[in-house]
Specification:
Radius of gyration: 33 Å
Distance between the termini: 78 Å
GO molecular function, one term: peptidoglycan binding
Keywords: Signal
CATH architecture of one domain: 2-Layer Sandwich
CATH class of one domain: Alpha Beta
Protein name: SPOR domain-containing protein
Largest sheet: 4 strands, antiparallel
Shape: elongated
Structural class: alpha+beta
């Protein structure tokens, strides 16, 4: 009985081996049809992104700490200095409040003097890309 089971396993193994050689994976071709305006739009976006020089400008950092205090500081700053824009930057694990967007260091230093009256720990920075 035991020899019979072994022979049937061997026979099944041999049959599967020969039939398995003939099996092949599926093949398919995929073609993507996209609007030619998409490439044109993508090229425009690349051109615009390369011309943005936001990080070549100077900013003033008025706060460095946790999220709640950063939000309060920014809201307070916006009430007092309405002509300057500000933003919160997250660099793990702290939040920074950056204000202004000055083309030259001289402009930034002039405004820094006014800002330091309210925020004595403010400092001038030039963010990296």
């Amino acid at each position: 009985m035991r020899i019979l089971n072994l022979r049937s396993y061997n026979a099944a193994f041999i049959l599967l081996t020969f039939f398995g050689v003939e099996c092949m994976a599926q093949e398919s071709n995929i073609s993507v049809n996209q609007d030619p305006r998409f490439e044109q739009l993508l090229a425009e976006k690349r051109k615009i992104n390369s011309s943005i020089t936001v990080n070549d400008r100077y900013k003033v950092q008025i706060f460095y700490g946790d999220n709640d205090k950063a939000r309060k500081t920014l809201a307070e700053f916006r009430r007092e200095f309405k002509n300057l824009d500000g933003t919160i930057i997250f660099e793990s694990p702290t939040y920074k409040v950056w204000v202004g967007n000055f083309k030259s260091r001289i402009d930034a230093e002039r405004k820094l003097i006014d800002i330091k009256k309210k925020y004595p720990y403010a400092l001038l920075i030039k963010p990296n890309k």
